[in-house]
Design a protein that fits this description.
heterodimer, A: six-stranded mixed beta sheet, three-stranded antiparallel beta sheet, B: 379 residues, alpha+beta, twelve-stranded mixed beta sheet, 12 helices, 12 strands
């Protein structure tokens, strides 16, 4: 299923602040994520996971090392070009969903298309169709406040996929969900998000979902300390996991 | 993305209505106070503006405003008439006699004496009776508010009598004269009779009012009159502003109103501006998500400006509607008659609201532009 490297980080460094207040968030990270894979980033709080995906997504500038994302060196892009790059190539799933509370589910999903200049009607239609495929066809007109946490995260997932990005970045997508909702979201991620020409990076603490991973990179203190391939996760992504798979934790 | 901006704005109804109300209230407060202030000052020149036939006023060189008169000589009238460019010039008397009803109620009044032959200087609008009846002996026309003051709770009717300086005068008309600065009855009589109604304190020839001949502007004529007679000559507009200027400089009105208007401005703008700014701050996470997704800064700036413009326009419209309703209700009351919502005050208030919207937008835009999109990952 793997068909190339989507993200490649070599000795990536990132620090915040200067002088005594300087914090080394990334201390030379070597990391890669392949197309057609669910790549997990795991590790304790404060180890640099979120900083790393922020750098990969072009939301933060690295301060050292080499990095290519979908074949592009983001540091060579202007701010405007980085925004366009993100808009075209990246999808985001946040822990707290970050849906716009005033928009319906379909309108929320349509936001990346609207940002790209797609006419509203066309964008919302496309969003509705995707929501239907994700099992939310009956809730396309619902406001986020009327949806359960699991449903909101599925809407957020649809928003991350609607413009068919080549890289999807998820930050703790199941952390705020109960077991069943988390499982549903992960099955959707494994079944709908993973494509031969798309890479998915997931930051998570949730050991219950490790079974979905193709690879798991463990971070600590700003470095990748361990990378493991999980063949079982690859099978789960293709065939759909059973409960036992969902609950597999990294030994 | 415009609809997204508007939906973000209106999504939280309580915040949205709070924002609109803050701007509407600010608008109402500013338009209300500035209009009342302007209208009260305009009242200082009501009797000048009521004289619509003449465009030029001639007076003693030391006269500064309507209330302050020093008698001119009868020959001054002849001299003014002799100035080239004067189509006609007539005398006008102004005095403050005490008018007493048969029941004993009395009030100091503004008495305007009109040229006997032409009745130049009378307000045009008559509610009851006619100006021609002023030619009857011992007759006066009184304004409606004065009538109500002297004959409270009684219907408007002609033929009632008043006593002024031992003269029994008959009301032959009720006019809609503009409200004066102080709430006194406004009466009009023929010049020859008005001077007798005042008594010993009379100042016979208070003003000369004139009209320029065709081809001569009022401004030009005032210059000619001043050059040839050494009297003071002002156009109607100039004389009105003289009166307003006098009250501004010599009374506590501007200070008191100025404080109120300043408080309204500060409170209104701060509340409206802060409310909008806080609205943006509370939505920073949403803006951060949009930034992360790939919405360009220029588009976010456009969204904020659209939100600010929408809420400012709606709040301004509602506030102006409230102010218009207020003045429509008070317009027909005796004490507040003639006080209207002035378009200049609406324009000034509009400029203030625009300023608030711009400042709040700039502050909000700044917060959004410096917002690190990675912040959306921080929960």
């Amino acid at each position: 299923m793997t068909s190339g490297v989507a993200v490649s980080c070599l000795g990536v460094r990132k620090h915040f602040g200067e002088g005594e207040a300087r914090i080394e968030a990334l201390r030379g990270v070597d990391f890669s994520a392949g197309f057609g894979e669910l790549s997990f980033l795991v590790g304790p709080s404060g180890c640099g996971k979120t900083t790393l995906i922020s750098v990969i997504a072009g939301l933060l500038h690295r301060t050292g090392g080499e990095m290519t994302v979908l074949g592009a060196r983001l540091d060579g892009l202007s701010d405007r070009e980085r925004v366009v790059f993100r808009r075209r190539n990246l999808g985001f799933v946040f822990q707290q969903y970050n849906l716009l509370p005033a928009l319906t589910s379909a309108e929320n999903v349509a936001v990346p298309l609207l940002a790209a200049g797609v006419p509203r009607k066309e964008a919302v239609e496309k969003a509705r169709a995707l929501l239907s495929r994700l099992g939310l066809g009956s809730r396309t007109s619902a406001l986020p406040s009327t949806l359960s946490g699991g449903q909101q995260q599925r809407v957020a997932l649809a928003r991350a996929l609607v413009h068919e990005p080549r890289l999807v970045v998820c930050d703790e997508p199941t952390a705020a969900l109960d077991h069943a909702s988390g499982k549903a979201v992960m099955e959707l991620l494994a079944g709908k998000a993973v494509q031969p020409d798309r890479a998915v990076i997931i930051v998570t603490h949730d050991t219950r979902v490790f079974g979905y991973a193709h690879s798991i990179a463990s971070m600590d203190d700003g470095r990748i300390v361990d990378v493991r391939r999980v063949a079982r996760g690859a099978r789960a992504a293709e065939a759909g996991p059973a409960d036992s798979v969902h609950e597999v934790a990294l030994a | 993305m415009n609809f997204v901006a508007l939906r973000m704005l209106t999504g939280d109804r309580s915040k949205y209505f709070g924002l609109v109300f803050a701007i509407a209230f600010c608008t109402f407060l500013l338009e209300n106070q500035t209009s009342i202030f302007a209208n009260i000052l305009k009242r200082t020149a009501s009797q000048i503006l009521d004289v619509t036939d003449a465009e030029v006023w001639v007076m003693d060189p030391r006269t500064e405003y309507w209330e302050q008169t020093k008698a001119l000589k009868d020959t001054d009238l002849t001299r003014v008439r002799g100035v080239p460019g004067v189509q006609w010039a007539v005398r006008l008397f102004k005095g403050n006699p005490v008018a007493r009803t048969l029941s004993g109620k009395f009030a100091v009044a503004f008495l305007v004496g009109l040229d006997d032959a032409t009745l130049v200087g009378a307000p045009r609008k008559m509610l009851l009776g006619s100006w021609e009846r002023l030619r009857e002996p011992d007759s006066v026309v009184i304004d409606k508010a004065g009538y109500i003051l002297l004959f409270p709770d009684e219907p408007l009717e002609l033929g009632r009598t008043l006593e002024m300086n031992d003269h029994k005068v008959t009301i032959v008309g009720i006019s809609d004269a503009s409200a004066p600065f102080v709430s006194l009855p406004v009466m009009h009589a023929r010049y020859s009779e008005a001077v007798t109604f005042l008594g010993r304190e009379r100042t016979e020839l208070s003003f000369i009012v004139a009209r320029p001949a065709p081809g001569v502007s009022a401004q030009e004529l005032t210059e000619r009159i001043e050059a040839r007679t050494s009297l003071r000559a002002r156009t109607t507009d100039e004389f009105m502003w003289d009166c307003i200027d006098y009250y501004l400089k010599n009374t506590g009105i501007p200070v008191n109103f100025g404080i109120t208007i300043a408080v309204a401005l500060v409170v209104g703008t701060v509340v409206a501006g802060q409310t909008f700014y806080l609205f943006t701050v509370e939505n920073l996470k949403q803006f951060g998500a949009l930034k992360a997704i790939g919405v360009a800064n220029s588009r976010l700036v456009g969204m904020i400006l659209l939100q600010a413009a929408s809420v400012a326009a709606l709040g301004f419209a509602i506030g102006t509607g409230m102010a218009a309703t207020f003045f429509e209700i008070t317009l027909h009351k005796v004490a507040t008659r003639g006080i209207v919502l002035m378009w200049q005050c609406v324009a000034i208030t509009g400029a203030c609201i625009l300023f608030v919207a711009i400042v709040a937008s700039i502050l909000s835009i700044r917060r959004v532009l410096v917002l690190e999109p990675a912040a959306v990952f921080r929960g």
